[in-house]
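User: Some background: our group keeps a shared notebook of sequences we're curious about, and every so often someone picks one and asks for a predicted structure to add to the entry. Today it's my turn. The entry only has the sequence so far, pasted here. Could you supply the structure so I can complete it?
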Amino acid sequence: MPPPEATDAIPLLIADGDIPTTRLVARELRAVYPDVEVRIPDTLFGADVRNRPILVSRLCHPSMGWLPAHLADRGHAYAYFLDDNFWELTPEVDPHLAAFFRHPAVVATLDAFVRGSRRVIVWSARLA
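Assistant: Of course. Here's the predicted structure to add to the notebook entry:
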């Protein structure tokens, strides 16, 4: 994302849901930017993405797999935030979430978001 003096635009945080991670990421953005617009997938339509910093947080649901190409086709760069290694999430690590995150469509969507991003942001050296 550009530094705050480079733009007056309000950053757009596109998050996978209204979860604690979303609130933490928004709080960190607000430490640098006075305002942040937070959208989850079902409220994304109608969001203006032109000429503003975009951060996508943890979004990898296959229903949003179109978004990386859509942004790229229109010249909109984004950063992608990831706080878990979803590629290695197994039933031994989390028996409840592993089936979702190991599904080929989810993995493909996660890969598309990461590969399409200008920058990937993580909070741990191990994940980096």
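Suggested note for the entry: The first strand starts at residue 12 and ends at 15. Confidence is low (pLDDT under 50) at residues 2-6.
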